[in-house]
């Protein structure tokens, strides 16, 4: 039986992990007598729960490796999508995606982010794409939730169906214990009614939630109204896309009533402060009306301390309370608890804490003055002394640069003017 002892840490506590759970956290003298297979020192360090990144796009991990700017500078959010992201995602093939997912996962673990919730798009490489992402998570030992963000925008309704079918295939076939699948839509405004409805049907059939960008830009709201609905959330609800464990991302242009309504229906929401600021789409004030709100990065680096610090500053700038950003970061643990049906989050010190006797999942970061020293996922050491256990970060970054060079060459072949095929 795999058993890991961590510590003692600077408080004099040790953590004992067995079968992926922290079965004891407290003074060494009170620790149960078990056979220890492996030890991890934590001198002058703290044993803390690993971070959860509640929304990202691993496919965009190569952007820091020299992505060229579009020839015509985008003037609004729709143009940012058309001229940058919707050219990038079509240029992705298997090798590019593999390099993106590997470098993103590896960097997350080195930064103490143990769970990655990913929303994927690669319209010219749909079938099998979720396995490429899942293999990267599994290779380095990370936890994750994956979906393909289906859309009709490039090739019509058949493209939307193929995206949803990829989610269904993955949900049914995936056997990796640390990875879950959900259904996914890119955003309701890039999907026909048939595709949105098909997604809801398949979510209910497979018993999983839906990840979807909602009301990120004003165009999403205008589109829903033009289609005869009150709002994006009204359209998603009427077409059957509000199912348990669904994750609605951004929700900036959503009214307080709709946010409350979504919260009553049990939805998860995700705020992505750096991305929203970068795209100049606004601040999601109405998320203060919901309880289940987590923090994501939307394709930016998975370092949650960087996102939290940027989020706090942006909250102040926008006249909101920065403590909400901290609460959203901690809510990521509750999101994982919902999806993995186990307790995630802070460890319970047996001497000082009587509030819970449940074991926490052993997803941990051991942190000192210099940052993350070790990372543990499911009770297994995945970063030791700031180095990946299952890979060489220099080699992974080198491969990322090689594939990034290919990606930029392929990307310029796609025009910056976009031809839509939403309802074909
Ligand atoms: Zn996103």
Describe the structure.
With 424 residues, the protein is an alpha/beta fold. The protein has two domains: 71 residues, Urease, subunit C, domain 1 (Roll); 307 residues, Metal-dependent hydrolases (TIM Barrel). It contains twelve helices and 19 strands. The strands form four sheets. It has a five-stranded mixed beta sheet, with no helix packed on it. A five-stranded antiparallel beta sheet has the order 5-16-17-18-19, with helices on one face. Strands 10-11-12-13-14 form a five-stranded parallel beta sheet. Helix 3 links the parallel strand 7 and strand 8. The chain is globular, with a radius of gyration of 21 Å. The protein binds zinc ion. Zinc ion (ZN) binds next to loops.
Structure summarized in a few sentences:
The chain is built from 12 helices and 19 strands. It is globular.
